[in-house]
Amino acid sequence: GAPPLVIAHRGASGERPEHTLAAYALAIDQGADFIEPDLVITRDGVLVARHDAELSLTTDVAAHAAFAPRRRTQLIDGRPVTGWFVEDFTLAELQRLRARERWPQWRAASAAFDGQFGVPTLQQVIDLLRAKEAASGRRIGLYPETKHPAHFAALGLPLEPALVQTLHAAGWRTADAPVYLQSFEAASLRTLAALTPLRRVQLAGERTRVDAAALRAIAGYAQGVGVAKALVIARDDAGRLGQPTPLVAQAHAAGLRVHAWTFRREAVFLPSNLQGEP
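Request: output the structure for the sequence above.
Response:
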């Protein structure tokens, strides 16, 4: 009977460039219960909020001539990616970059803020959250995701210890804290389980097979699943909205919470039968 949580995916990312303090602040002002920073790590071991290890999609790194020699190609999660990578930058260097809208063709209003904001550290996100809590008098949760954790661990830059240390220092140390730790990689969640009682969520994309047996296994190391919307309400081959799946009932039977992602208002992301006229 409780209302669903409103989790601000990358902040108010339809209205401000994603993973900026401005995007998180606006999301909180709009009433979000949780803000969701995706986390990567700099060469000097500082957690920062970016959706990708590669920086050119959401920053102006390509416009900095001094950083041009750092453009390279590497494998991330088994596929080649070309660009500029966060692990090749110190925090001081990263803070010279300015954020920009990932999808300006669909989010012109957000793109109008290109160049105005920097790349925040996790600590800066927490400081903003605390300030907003003090100003509003309401509790605001944090929903961080470890991005490419195996990639960073292989570089000697594991995300999990730094994340737990920062969260514990902020006072979030128990299972009832307003924090969920999420990852697509089960190994990262298992590592977090050994480091902290904070709640964990296994992410699953729409091509992932998530059946009752898989959910029971997830319940061994997580308290919830974060699933693509199509795993909860199916879409047909033409992209039209279909019928509810058994996932929610199966997850609840396994003792898991269900958080679905991502609800975007741009027509291109809607089911084909809800997009209206182009």
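The chain has a mean pLDDT of 96.
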